[in-house]
Design brief:
Elements lengths: L1 E7 L3 E4 L3 H10 L5 H8 L2 E3 L2 E3 L2 E3 L3 E7 L2 E14 L2 H13 L2 E4 L2 E11 L7 E8 L6 E4 L2 E4 L5 H18 L8 E16 L2 E15 H10 L12 E7 L2 E4 L2
Antiparallel strand pairs: 1-7, 1-9, 2-7, 3-4, 5-7, 6-7, 8-9, 10-14, 10-15, 11-12, 13-14, 15-16
């Protein structure tokens, strides 16, 4: 389940490394509830791995870069998805009952809140996915982190492992487990700071062979790792007049 959250504030300024700020604003919408406490402090577990099962996008809108800040002209928006509909319902209720959010010590008007229906795909399909926030795929051994770029066979391997781990943690049955990367386009490398850490990540378009069960999981919980930190939100794209356009 996905929301498009449209906000307004003339000359809204936020640091380029805003992921932790936006995550904090999301948690603040329901942090004092039992469900909010679960997502903030516990999450879904598969052995030592913990998954929050939600993902948010980059911020979108007309902006300019001022020193190390992004300055939005007025209207800006982001997307928020979760596998648990209760998560989205609580956020939606908060946004519809309030007129403003506090983001980075600034009062921001809540302009629109739209519930988006997930795109329908076949039981087994070949589709193009477009990233709405950068994807990071890595492994850690003996305190050393190794990152994998799109096109590296291990990139696909760790994405599949992540899908399987999320399925177990959430007890989400994958009746048909299909995920195979066919090709990439428009790959852009990004180094993203979250709190005191930096993550090598990528924006891209990716053609995949995928089952409906896997797509629903990725659409709502995110692709690969660090989804609740603003990594790995994807949307479907369709071919139109030989150009790929995002349906958003």
């Amino acid at each position: 389940m996905r929301l498009k959250i449209v906000l307004k504030k003339p000359k809204f300024k936020i640091p380029i490394a805003y992921n932790s700020i936006l995550q904090g604003a999301i948690y603040n919408m329901f942090d004092r509830t039992e469900l909010g406490n679960f997502y903030h402090n516990e999450g879904y577990r598969n052995q030592e791995k913990v998954f929050k099962m939600f993902v948010f996008s980059n911020l979108f809108g007309k902006y300019e870069i001022v020193e190390n800040n992004i300055c939005f002209e007025n209207r800006f928006w982001f997307y928020l998805s979760a596998l648990d509909e209760r998560f989205i319902e609580e956020i939606y209720n908060f946004l519809t009952l309030n007129h403003f959010l506090i983001i980075h010590h600034q009062k921001v008007e809540i302009s629109e809140v739209n519930i988006l229906n997930g795109p329908g795909i076949k039981q087994e399909d070949t589709i193009w996915l477009h990233t709405l926030s950068p994807v990071t795929a890595y492994s850690t051994s003996q305190n050393k982190t190794t990152y994998y770029a799109p096109g590296d066979p291990l990139f696909e391997k760790y994405i599949i492992q992540n899908i399987q781990n999320k399925s177990i943690a959430y007890q989400y049955p994958l009746d048909l487990m299909i995920f195979k990367i066919i090709q990439f386009q428009n790959v852009k490398e990004r180094m993203v700071k979250f709190k005191d850490s930096h993550y090598l990540s990528y924006l891209f378009d990716m053609q995949v062979q995928i089952s409906r069960d896997v797509f629903i999981l990725l659409y709502n919980a995110g692709l690969s790792s660090k989804n609740s930190c603003g990594f790995g939100m994807v949307d479907i794209k369709r071919e139109k007049n030989n150009l790929f356009v995002s349906e958003r």
